[in-house]
Amino acid sequence: MAVDAERMPKLLHGLDAGEHSSEVAVLATCNRTEVYLIAERFHGTYDEVRDFFADLTYLPPEHFADNLYVHYDEAAVRHLFEVVAGLDSAVPGEHEIHGQVRSAWELAMAEGTARRGLNLLFRHAVEVGKRARSETRIGHGITSVSQASVLLAADHLGSLHDRSVMVVGAGSVGRAVASFLADAGVGSLVVANRSLDSAEALVEQTRLRAPETVARAVGLDAVTDELVGCDVVISATDAPDPVIDLHSVASTLDRRTSPLLVVDVAMPRDVDPRVALLEGVDLLDMDSVAAFTEASKAERAREVVAVQAIVDEEIARFEAAASAREVAPVIGSLHDLAEQLRAAELDRFGAKLAGLDPADREVVEALTRGLVAKLLHGPSVRLKDAAGTAQGDRLADSIRDLFDLP
Fold first, then answer.
1. Which one of 3.30.70.100, 3.40.47.40, 3.30.465.10, 3.40.50.720 gives the CATH number of domain 145-293?
2. Residues with Cβ within 8 Å of residue 29, at least 6 apart in sequence
3. Would residue 30 show up in a list of annotated catalytic residues for this protein?
């Protein structure tokens, strides 16, 4: 279900063109692929998203439909808020997810598929993520997949100090992995990436961070040769297919003098799972990362209650803001209609009022405006106070029907 970043704009527009939805954003990370929509009809929208995944995977819906999870209304808002707060991550409290949610929103805005409704939701979600990390300790300890992968490798080998490590991928996770490796004091670092320029840029950053580390860049076509001389490989590309296959690893084993540790934190996987069957190779993946972080969850688990309280508070704030947004057009349309009627009546009596001097004319204007304002004050206040409730919905519908408002 992973979505290639290059395909994302086209997929966003494909979902946005659906008959039953009016806005869409897609959050695709190493742990999740989620579609957020403003839906006009629930079942119709669900079918469209299900078909989206069928097209994406070339699988019939019955092969995966049971594994989809669906949230709507408040539950959907809660889910996003918990995701951005780090409560729904393989590493609770991770930092990356906050930026990933923001990036998903920014892309949807840039493509024009996130508009008024989703902009309100995601803007609020980003603030929830900030509060969770600034007001609690949920972000302390192991807080990212990249950090966990490095600590996992160090735990497996005893230490990474003076070890030779290859990082495959120079994207956001690869860059974070490289920074943690530099702090761990690795002896040498090879960055392999499809774009050599990106790999070289990351190498330069590593040299500035850890001048004692010997760092260099290579292309993906050099990965097999580099496997011979490294102790650890941490792979984190966004490639749709494995970049390290069984043959590549097997062909290097007779030239190695020590075991090889491979940590695969990509989604979909970068490393052929059969590599784990090779003697002299230890392959760790996202499940291994999640298991490793279990031990460090105790401290952050104590913060979950505090973060959950923030989520609850922010859901209430969001619903109030969303409800106010819903009634505001009704109130605005009602006042616009009243003003049009007031102006039309003054025009109708224009001949009879023509003899008034400017001061008297202003009195008439003020009098009619005052009458309209007083008549609409009560209904407007009641509608605002009832916003977000069943009564508020009934009042808004009644006003639309009574005054033929859009």
1. 3.40.50.720
2. 96, 97, 100, 267
3. yes
